[in-house]
Amino acid sequence: MRKIEDYSSDIAIIIKSKTKKGLIKEAIYACFEYLLGKKPMLGKEKKVIFFEIKGNLEDGIVDALNFFLKTFYIEKYVPYRIYVKETKEKNFEIKAFARLFNGNLIHYIKAATYQDNKIVQKGDMFTLKVVFDV
């Protein structure tokens, strides 16, 4: 579950999930949904991307978002199906199926920084707030 709040100079995306794995997945989807709109223009060319988050999950989510945004910016691939699994070492492995983005990149560059990435647990739900500078 995710919602977007619009502040004057920032956009905050609130992400909720029952699992930390779900939080990672939703955070990545939410960022691309914000950047590209709900249905980005994707080409036919596909790619599989592997990524491992080592250690602290809070820092790891920012690492993952930056990794995927960099992949998007440099190679123009957008993840459309994401699988996250926890390893024995308590790291998180991400496998993403990505497709080539056919749109214009100029509008999407500003959103590559994050200010607030604290995970809060209330009951059985984890909440993450990702704030973009715009």
From TrEMBL:
GO terms for molecular function: metal ion binding. It comes from the Bacteria. Residues 6-134 form the Archease domain. Keywords: Calcium, Metal-binding, tRNA processing. InterPro entries: Archease_dom, Archease_dom_sf. GO terms for biological process: tRNA processing. Belongs to the archease family. This is SHS2 domain-containing protein. The lineage of its organism: Bacteria, Pseudomonadati, Campylobacterota, Desulfurellia, Desulfurellales.
